[in-house]
Amino acid sequence: MNDGKLADMVKGWEVRDYHGATLYGQKGDDAILARVGESTWVAGETNRALSWIDGHRDEEVSGALLARLDPVRYKNTFWIHIDAQSMLASMAEKGDSDWMRGLGGARSLQFSADLGRALVFDGQCIFEDEERAGLFRDAIKGALATAKLSVPDERRIIDVLNKININARGNRVDIDFSIKREDIDRLVSLKERGVVTL
Fold first, then answer.
1. Other CB atoms closer than 10 Å to residue 63's CB: what's the count?
2. Fewest 10 Å CB contacts: which of 22, 98, 155, 198?
């Protein structure tokens, strides 16, 4: 995705240059999204993100970071790794659903996707303890159950939601699924009309 298309998606955000990186941020929000080079994106609290850019602009990715990224399944397509509890806590505080608020106990979050004819998604979220992981898993399952009940006549969408796999293993929650593009479009349409809440 080029910067122009991203800028269209985040209209109203401030856009500025920082040593060759393009920064996107919202007024009053101490967090930014930055494009660094052709295929690297950094998101987080402004000072930390800028510090990362300053320290890694001309360096190879560190061995420690590579170790943390080892579980990422689709490294050659699209992936995100968030390793900042304060950022996840902020996301949880602003969340408008139980599963978003459940991120308050998360230590790290990462997910990747293969964006071919279908969206193939694989994600992991690490929590402070097993109890918080279980609560997050239950919140997502509850949201999916509510979504299915809201569209009893949409058999195809119910089948799609049934294919979303969620498991808690210790303090880690794993999520994976595969959804065809036409089913994504239908699900988005239902959500925009307020028929489905996720």
1. 8
2. 155
pTM of the predicted model as reported, rounded to 2 decimal places: 0.63
DSSP 189: H
Residue 58 has pLDDT above 50, yes or no: no
The residues spanned by each domain of the chain are 1-59, 61-198
Dump pLDDT digits (tens) for 118-128: 889 999 999 98
Alpha helix stretches (DSSP H) within the chain: 3-9, 46-56, 63-68, 85-94, 98-101, 130-150, 155-162, 181-192
In terms of Cα–Cα distance, which of 43, 56, 115 is closest to 86? 43
Cβ–Cβ under 8 Å, residues 129 and 171:
yes
Residues 6+ apart with CB under 8 A from 113: 74, 77, 78, 79, 119, 120, 121, 122
Question: Per residue in 42-53, pLDDT tens?
Answer: 777 788 778 777
Q: Quickly state the pLDDT bin for 66 (edges 50, 70, 90).
A: low
Residue 87 has pLDDT above 90, yes or no: no
92 C-beta neighbours (distance < 10 Å), count: 17
Cα dist. 130→126, 134, 167, 173 in Å? 9, 6, 12, 9
Give the 3-state secondary structure of residue 146: helix
Residues 174, 129: contact at Cβ < 8 Å? no
